[in-house]
Amino acid sequence: MPSEAELVAEYGVSRITARKSIGLLREEGVVYTRQGQGSFIGPEEARKARRRRGQRYVEIAEDLERRIRDEEWRPEPPLPSEQRFAQHYDVSVSTVRRAIAILRERGMLVTVPGKGTYLACD
């Protein structure tokens, strides 16, 4: 949502008028405000629900761990690429990398630069 200063410039109103307008929208549940970050469109409950849902990369790491334990993959060849996992989970490659990093820390995966990610040998 535009900042108070942007609303002042766009509509030619005072800063107090812009602030009161945002306050009314907040009271009606149309926007919510995060201190130091600004006002955002939508109910605050939706933001809280997203936060409670957890980090997506943790959920992906848990799913990959389950798939490894179910022996979906063999030690050779490498696992599917990060890009393929990103498409499968509908997330960014960086989210997949964070999930894979968790499994590397747990000793379940090994990544060889330029080659791929493999199941760690016992």
Structural summary, described in words:
Strand 3 (109-112) and strand 4 (116-119) form a beta hairpin. The protein is of the alpha+beta class and 122 residues long. The protein has helices at residues 4-11, 15-27, 44-53, 56-69, 82-89, 93-105, and strands at residues 31-34, 38-41, 109-112, 116-119. The protein is 54% helix and 13% strand. The chain has 6 helices and 4 strands; from the N terminus they run H-H-E-E-H-H-H-H-E-E. The chain is elongated. The strands form 2 sheets. Strands 1-2 form a two-stranded antiparallel ribbon. A two-stranded antiparallel sheet has the order 3-4.
Task: Name the descriptors.
elongated, single chain, 2 domains, 6 helices, Arc Repressor Mutant, subunit A, alpha+beta, two-stranded antiparallel ribbon, 122 residues, two-stranded antiparallel sheet
Number of strands: 4
Radius of gyration: 23 Å
Instruction: Give the mean pLDDT.
Output: 85
Helix content: 40-55%
Strand content: 5-15%
Looking at the structure, the CATH topology of the largest domain is: Arc Repressor Mutant, subunit A
User: What series of H and E elements makes up the topology?
Assistant: HHEEHHHHEE
User: What are the low-pLDDT stretches, counting only 5+ consecutive residues below 50?
Assistant: none
In summary, what is this structure?
The chain is α+β, with helices and mostly antiparallel strands. The protein contains six helices and four strands, in the order H-H-E-E-H-H-H-H-E-E. A two-stranded antiparallel sheet has the order 1-2. Strands 3-4 form a two-stranded antiparallel ribbon.
